Amino acid sequence: MPTAVLVHCEDCSYEETFDSLRAARMAVDDHERATAHGLDWYIGGLSGGVERAAADAGVCGREGCANPDSPLLDREAARSTGGSSTK
Ligand SMILES: [Zn+2]
């Protein structure tokens, strides 16, 4: 299932749809750098904070990295840094 990403600029009438996050991010980057406009983007009909979180988390370029609230991660970290070698 392709991801449809709508990029929309509130400061001008720029609006374009991309079929990949990467292409959309590049377009947003480009437009913001060239015009200093503020763009919104909507992924697959979603809107709100989801795409912003995705944008932030997307820095590393891997979707799997975008999960900072996983309780498993915390538990693993706590266990390995706790120094409790009770067995
Ligand atoms: Zn613009």
From TrEMBL:
It comes from the Archaea. This is Uncharacterized protein. Residues 68-87 are annotated as: Disordered. It holds the Pfam family DUF7542. InterPro entries: DUF7542 (IPR055964). It comes from Halobaculum gomorrense.
